[in-house]
Amino acid sequence: MTELSAAHDAAVTDRARLAGSAYNSDRHLAARQSLYQWQTPRYDLPGLVAEQLSGVHGRVVDVGCGNGKFIQRLRQDRPDLALLGLDIAPGILAGVPGPVAVAEATRLPLVTEGVDAALALHMLYHVPDIPRTVRELSRVVARDGLVIASTNSDRDKAALDDLWQRAAGDVLGTGRGPARISLSARFSLEKAPAFLGEEFGRVETIELPGTITVHDPEPVIAYMASYRAWADQHDVPFDATIERARTILVDHIARHRAFEVTCLGGILVCRR
């Protein structure tokens, strides 16, 4: 492991950073979620998860539930399910309909085979020990239950990576600056099946490709600024880089009428 990748992994999994800054409220997560309203095609991700749970009855735990978007939808669509939300960040749980609890994904406070399904949505890249967490998910789910995970591809939002490097390079006067931090790199759509396949005999990947098209720079700027918790990961002035990115976007949109970002995420449905 290189020094850079070790530092990246430490930053992405640092519990104090995650609970105290990145997810101390839902402000930053909501900014990232909101960008997808400009995506074509539009995916109803909570609806897709609810559809995958159509054959599940009983208890469902949402591990790393964040601001509760999936719990809220399941409470609406599946009032028959007994839902529990878990997260390491007390602040982000404030608005999530209960029951909820603060818990570590590597040590779930659940009995063996105690739930009928577990959700691990856009969160496994934040756990310090991915294989151990996958084993925990497998442990707590009933033999005929399922685990649903989600993440992004290594190729997701390359246009934002390019924008960040251009802006950072301009600020530093170096042509192209260092890459922005990638949250999903440790558990990308390409890497996820191998991790999950260690515990589950069947892992189905459902890819969700799309293109985000904006005519105003602000949704993209809000998305990029939501990574403020990791601003110290490169020797780049964060605010100055964000402002330079805004200027680049304004110019791009004036010339091309829009700014496009190609996306690729997906969900993984796991059964034994």
The assembly state of the depicted protein chains is: single chain
> Strand percentage, roughly?
15-25%
CATH topology: Rossmann fold
* Helix share bin: 25-40%
Distance between the termini: 31 Å
The named CATH superfamily: Vaccinia Virus protein VP39
Structural classification: alpha/beta
CATH architecture: 3-Layer(aba) Sandwich
What is the CATH class?
A: Alpha Beta
Spatial extent as radius of gyration = 19 Å
Q: Helical segment tally?
A: 10
Return residue spans where pLDDT drops below 50 for at least 5 consecutive residues. none
Order of helices and strands: HHHEHEHEEEHEHHEHHE
Summarize model confidence as the mean pLDDT: 95
Question: How would you sum up the global shape?
Answer: globular
- Main pleated-sheet profile: 8 strands, mixed
Order of strands, main sheet, comes to 1-7-8-6-5-2-3-4
What's the count of strands?
Answer: 8
